[in-house]
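pinning this so it doesn't scroll away 📌
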Amino acid sequence: MGKLHARIDDRLRRFIEEQPVFFTATAPLAGDGHVNLSPKGRAGTLVVIDDQTLAYLDFGGSGAETIAHVRENGRITLMWCAFSGPPNIVRIHGEGEAVFRDDPRWAGLVALFGDADGPAARAVIVVRARRITDVCGYAVPFMEYQGERTLHAEYFGRKTDDEFAAYCEKKDFIATSVDGLPALPLPLPPRTV
């Protein structure tokens, strides 16, 4: 049976922090726009700030749909599934905000991630919970976690900040989404921290 929670309590926080992968879902306001669903990993790149707020590092890669959607309307859902241990699914429906490198809050937010921060971090997505639920997850299969993939961190770790900015400039769907919404502000502000 599903349960609605008023806050991210200690049990939910532990569950969220123990999962090696989570998913984000966003959509534009336009009825014919593209819904986006993204897997997120890399240990330590999500933090529970308080009982209503989470944040995760947004890294360079294939596109910037999540950024575009939260800039347009703020709607975001985060989901975690237990692939081992007792069955559980947690969803947080919230209001998302993209905090970019030139925002005065950047340094304080990025410090929350410690060693998980990396050269390809282009935004911090802050999510304020509006609805917090968990359900049984009985149909989620057992899967064995083998470890972190290091390819993303290694690839971008070889780039200077200027090279990363140039990478962002030439990629499709970074400055605008597939639906033409403003996404990552370019030119990408340099990292100061």
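📌 and the second one:
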Amino acid sequence: ELLVCLETEITKQQIQFVYGSGKRKHTLQRLFEACAAIRNKRIEYDEKLQLLGTRNSYSKTDPDATFMRLKEDHMLNGQLKPAYNVQLAVHSEYIVGVGVFPNPTDTKTLIPFMKQLESQYKQKFQYVVADAGYDSNENLSWLLARDYKTCIKPSNYERSKTKRYREDIGRADNMTYDEMNDTFTCAKGRKLHFERIRKTRSKTGFVYESRVYRCERCNYCGLRSQCQKTYTSFQSKGNKALYISTQYRAMLAKNNEIFNSPLGKRLRVNRSIQVEGVFGVLKEDMMYKRLRHRGADNVEKNLLLIAFGFNVMKLHNRIQKGRLGKRLFEIKTAA
């Protein structure tokens, strides 16, 4: 709008634009050029923001790539490099799906990757076996709603086995729960009563509910520093609150039934052998440690060609060892 007003006024006064040394620009010409520069910069910013999308960064040489911290950090300084989050789906030792995603975390890749697999195959997979990076309320809700059996490692599985976790009095798992009165009892013997239901919306738009339990009083509690741990040096002045997602806990309990069963242990061992083994063969045996192409489409096509070659090699090895028709490896037992 400013440019239109300036252009109208310049035309009205019949001002001629001048350039070069020894020429004195009119005030309206200076204003017009400054306003045009701001407009052009704004257009440039809008184009870059549209290219950025929901990401936090992108590479100028490869706009589809996102800057991430990689495992191969030779300088040991957490250097960011443009990369892709590559996902592989493995079934019976064969690669059945390849996914290329711009987000660095695995949590947000499970649902779009499963939708991609559903569109490729008419038959659904029975079990979804994944690492702790894929455990979330949204992922479990989506999988169980579509009748998948999940064997996903809980995000706190390794921490829950430590002494520090078991002795943390601030966690709900280490408090006594009274199902009749719907209250928790802390280490000091004080009750945490149900207060309200809180709805939370994640960045992906997923809405989940949490039951809020709050302590009746935390004043003059000698265990307050251990119960209400803070990341700052200032101690919290409010009463202790717990946020319990009953729906997520129920889904996690259903997942843990399979996860801790003998079949679940076999599935977990085979996930380590088959999925991690595929990445090991591609990186170490085939020496494919770095993507050779730019652009998400080119990267995906290149990975598909590599997957074809891997599957042919795997078929040959299974024929030689007489393992056709076998999906899982047997768990080795100690003598």
